[in-house]
Amino acid sequence: MLTYILSFLPLSDQKEASLVSWAWYRAAQNALREDASVLSMIPALGLSLRVLDLSSCVALTNRTLQAICTYLTHLSVLRLAWCRELCDWGLLGLEEPLQGTQPRPELEHQASGTKDPCPEPQGPSLLMLRALQELDLTACSKLTDASLAKVLQFPQLRQLSLSLLPELTDKGLLAVAGGCPSLEHLALSHCTRVSDKGWAQAASSWPRLQHLNLSSCSQLTEQTLDAIGQACRQLRVLDVAMCPGINMAAIRRFQAQLPQVSCVQSRFVGGADLTLTL
């Protein structure tokens, strides 16, 4: 049980916890060993593996991700949900920053200016997995536009989850729209920095979209519903639960615009479950 609890801590906290006592040391070592065991198996799996699900392997490191990108280039499905140690430099194939040093200037966010602050992918980046059809990065909360805007370029990708990424903005959304035009399932729940402006430009890139989850995207309003209704004509399922800027009147208009939509999830703060199924 202690090993399980410690596995949810960042690596730096796991190392500190290992100093408490001998029992805590052994538990922390077991938690750290989870990543080491995955890393040791990757080269042996070679080109034969097509589906890899490492969801909730919270101790998984960027080094292991880069090994996946090096050896498992034929993957069609990669699930890394809740692997919260993954960082931008890991996805981009960059070397790990030295402990105690300042963040790389190219990964720092710039609020203004025309210069692109994002570095190009180097080494074993996520871009090497060209055959991907499904990618799940749910709750990999350290990821930002700095990497996502560069590596999410998968023409064959059908399913993508970027839910619970607090740093995803309209820039990242537009990059995904340009790099992943074949998406059929897209989950962006709790991406609170994505706005109507981003969707106004991105929606037209996804004519094949069938399932869309935008729950708890607090900046979205009926303008996003209008953009989706005009561009995503194959949509079947939409989740806008807990989106305070979208009311029932807007949902009714959306359903009139796209009568083929069979299910709209639309629960509201303090209200009843208003799931509408046709």
UniProtKB/TrEMBL annotation:
Residues 129-252 form the F-box/LRR-repeat protein 15-like leucin rich repeat domain. SUPFAM superfamilies: RNI-like. Keywords: Leucine-rich repeat, Ubl conjugation pathway. GO terms for biological process: SCF-dependent proteasomal ubiquitin-dependent protein catabolic process. Residues 101-120 are annotated as: Disordered. Coiled coil: none annotated. SMART domains: LRR_CC (SM00367). InterPro entries: F-box_dom, FBXL15_LRR, Leu-rich_rpt_Cys-con_subtyp, LRR_dom_sf. Residues 2-29 form the F-box domain. This is Leucine rich repeat containing 29.
